């Protein structure tokens, strides 16, 4: 029995081995590690495309073509020598531009070319009209007038005629700082006898007996205003003491008089603020009690013509109503 089993197994191995050899002969095996590779032609064997010659441009017409470069490597332009620039920090001074205030010169022109304020000393040294040659109360352009006191004036032939206006005083004081001088006319001297004879050449208002004669002001005014603040001690106790044209409420571009002048250190171009005066009111809740409201900034002004003890100033900005005796100071 055992011999039969061994015989059967041997027979099976023999048959299986014959089939395997027959399959191997018909289908040779490809080793798994071998992979088909793509063979590339050498770069020298690759055919390069031939481009047609570029057409000659009009700008190159008539120029000779350069021979081709036979070298294998392209020629590079010669490198220029490099220069080394050494940088170092430096300080530059820039001039700061100042914003100058825009002032309507037409509003203040008449205050620049003629004196509008006179002192007590100038009044005492001025001439005065004693009569009209036409024996009328008022004189106009072309009329002749008689005057005295011209020998004390520096002018020789030309004078101006003014009339004294309001007196400028500090609040609560009787001392007169200066007088308003209202311009009336120009006058030319004809005869320097006593009394002198003059002809009115330009008349703004009618001239009458008692009007004053002043020397013609030859001062050239500098319209280049450089705004700056005055020294604090210059504005100690400064106030608006008058408004030109007699109004009581002041707004922008109106002219006011302050009680500080060149004797106090005030200069052309001084910029100051106006503080609206404190008010005394009654407390409606607590009957009988009164309180003082604090000052408020009402605007700014610029001095355009200082005199000895007073100055002309132009209101540049007005936030609140400005009144006489409002305080003036620096911010």
What does this protein structure show overall?
- This protein is mostly beta strands.
- Among the domains are: 105-215; 232-329, FlgT, C-terminal domain (Thrombin, subunit H).
- It has helices at 2-26, 105-113, 120-124; strands spanning 117-118, 127-132, 144-148, 158-169, 176-191, 196-203, 212-215, 240-243, 249-250, 255-258, 271-276, 280-282, 290-292, 296-306, 311-318, 322-323, 327-329.
- The strands form 4 sheets. It has a 6-stranded antiparallel barrel with strand order 2-3-6-5-4-7. Strands 8-10-15-14-11-17 form a 6-stranded antiparallel beta sheet. A two-stranded antiparallel ribbon has the order 9-16.
- The chain is elongated.
- The termini are far apart.
**What is the H/E order?**
HHEHEEEEEEEEEEEEEEEE
Secondary-structure-derived class: mainly beta
Mean pLDDT: 76
Specify Rg, calculated over alpha carbons.
54 Å
Task: Please give the largest β-sheet.
Answer: 6 strands, antiparallel, barrel
Counting DSSP E segments of at least 2 residues, the number of strands comes to 17
**Quaternary class:** single chain
Strand order of the largest sheet: 2-3-6-5-4-7
Q: In percent, how helical is the residue content? A: 10-25%
Shape: elongated
Unreliable stretches, pLDDT < 50, 5 or more residues? 29-48, 57-65
Distance between the termini: 135 Å
């Amino acid at each position: 029995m055992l011999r039969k089993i061994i015989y059967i197994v041997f027979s099976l191995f023999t048959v299986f081995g014959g089939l395997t050899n027959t399959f191997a002969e018909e289908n040779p095996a490809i080793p798994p590690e071998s992979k088909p590779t793509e063979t590339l032609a050498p770069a020298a064997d690759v055919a390069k495309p031939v481009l047609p010659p570029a057409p000659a441009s009009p700008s190159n017409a008539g120029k000779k073509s350069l021979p081709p470069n036979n070298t294998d490597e392209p020629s590079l332009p010669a490198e220029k020598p490099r220069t080394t620039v050494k940088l170092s920090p430096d300080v530059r001074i820039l001039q700061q531009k100042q914003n100058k205030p825009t002032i309507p010169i037409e509003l203040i022109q008449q205050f620049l070319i003629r004196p509008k304020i006179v002192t007590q000393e100038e009044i005492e040294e001025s001439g005065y009209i004693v009569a009209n040659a036409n024996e009328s109360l008022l004189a106009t352009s072309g009329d002749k007038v008689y005057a005295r006191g011209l020998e004390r004036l520096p002018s020789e032939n030309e004078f101006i005629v003014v009339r004294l206006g309001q007196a400028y005083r500090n609040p609560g004081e009787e001392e007169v700082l200066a007088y308003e001088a209202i311009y009336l006319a120009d006058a030319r001297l004809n005869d320097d006898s006593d009394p002198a004879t003059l002809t009115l050449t330009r008349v703004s208002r009618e001239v009458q007996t008692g009007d004053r004669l002043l020397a013609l002001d030859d001062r050239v005014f500098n319209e280049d205003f450089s705004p700056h603040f005055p020294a604090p001690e210059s504005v100690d106790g400064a106030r608006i003491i008058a408004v030109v044209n007699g109004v009581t409420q002041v707004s922008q571009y109106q002219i006011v008089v302050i009680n500080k002048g060149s004797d106090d250190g005030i200069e052309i171009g001084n910029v100051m603020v106006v503080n609206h005066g404190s008010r005394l009111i009654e407390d409606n809740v607590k009957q009988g009690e009164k309180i003082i409201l604090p000052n408020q900034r009402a605007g700014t002004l610029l001095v355009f013509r200082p005199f000895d003890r007073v100055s002309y100033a132009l209101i540049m900005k007005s936030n609140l109503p400005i009144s006489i005796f409002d305080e003036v100071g620096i911010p």
